Amino acid sequence: MPKGVVLLADVMPSFLTKLVAPYFIHRVPYSIRIPCFVALSTVGMSLVAFTPPSQSVAIKLIGVVLASLSSGGGELSFLGLTHYYGHMSLAAWGSGTGGAGLIGSGLYVILTTWLGLSVKTSLLLSASLPLVMLVAFFMVLPREPLHRGVSEDYVPVPDAELQDDDEGRPETFDDIPEDTAAASLLAPGPGVASAAYATHAHGGGKTSFAANLRRARSLFLPYMLPLLLVYIAEYTINQGVAPTLLFPLERSPFSEFRAFYPFYGFLYQLGVFIARSSTPFVRIHHLYLPSLLQVANLVLLTLHALFNFIPSVYLVFAVIFWEGLLGGAVYVNTFAEIMENVPIEEREFSLGATSVSDSGGISVAGFIGMAMEVWLCDWQVQHGRDWCRRIGAS
Fold first, then answer.
1. Which of 31, 274, 317, 380 has its CA 20 to 30 A from that of 284?
2. Residues contacting residue 200 through CB under 8 Å, at least 6 positions apart
């Protein structure tokens, strides 16, 4: 199956879900969303597992699409949930997604190579993992903050009414009971009183499609664009440049050329995991700086693939690890900035809407990377370095 077809089936449904869903998904309770996404993921991986290799490719692609839909909808929903549980929940989400990338990149190898399981058995075991989300959501996650949140299940102010002055305005925001305001606004900021009153007055802050479009436009420059840039740069490196970052085997710790790329992937995921776990200790407020540094990494590694001027593979290891740090830092700090700076009544939508940038960046990078890998490999062969053509040889 062509890699480009698999890429489209894997990335595009997630991208389209994140692009469209934030404008209507708030009408679907989380208690319905999560089981639906778990079912999509499980069914998708099961279709891939149960379809024999010699039979319909279309059925396998449908399975990939279903899993991708689950991934996109699940990410924007869980990011939205962090609005109800404060900044530490965002740090936990970032650390968990970073750890998933680190473990997931090696899980298939562990199951098939180390444990000797068949491909079908390995996929079926992986298909059962989304069920853990049901346990986490319905049994582990405290439900009270969600029930009393701003966007769903609005709790009226008990035994109190806002009193109007002679001009018909509320006398003071202090008339809102403290426990109601605290329950609705779990991450207090400068707009706490006004947001609490707005929620009370308008019955939960339901907003129109046009208003959400205006919100999305306001998110583009400060949050979406740096996240988009960093994902385009790092996934172009991962998919288009890294397969050609090869050295003579006698100057490397490897015995086969095919060992370079998986190790680059491990270093990248390790950097992502560390950076996504870092917000309780280190915060980055200027998101464009690490995004532009990631673009500089892309330029540096592309030039090396062309002109072979980096003297040691260990320096490339350091750059790939640094790439992961930058990518993970921009991801988690983008959403941390939204948690801090976006008004509370707009925060849940903003967290979900901004997540479209990572899938969008991966989609763009996928097409760029497919062309770059072929071009760089051909260039290297023409200049006497045919290592990229020897990947897979013993």
1. 317
2. 156, 157, 162, 176, 180
110 and 239 in a common domain: yes
Selection from 119, 329, 161 nearest residue 234 by Cα: 329
Whether residues 118 and 175 fall in one domain: no
Looking at the structure, do residues 181 and 85 belong to the same domain, yes or no?
Answer: no
* Per-residue pLDDT reduced to its tens digit, 64-93: 999 999 999 999 999 999 988 888 888 899
When comparing pLDDT for 99 and 310, which is higher?
310
Are 112 and 176 contained in the same domain?
A: no
Domain that holds residue 325: 3-146+206-389
Neighbours of 90 (CB within 10 A): 25
Tell me how many domains the chain contains: 2
Closest to 47 (Cα-Cα) out of 145, 124, 157, 141: 124
Which own/partner contact pairs does 265-269 have at CB distance under 8 Å and 24+ positions apart? Answer: 265/105, 265/238, 266/102, 266/105, 266/106, 267/317, 267/320, 267/321, 267/324, 268/234, 268/238, 268/320, 268/321, 268/323, 268/324, 268/327, 269/98, 269/101, 269/102, 269/105, 269/324
Cβ neighbour number for residue 116 with a 10 Å cutoff: 8
Does any domain span residue 153?
no
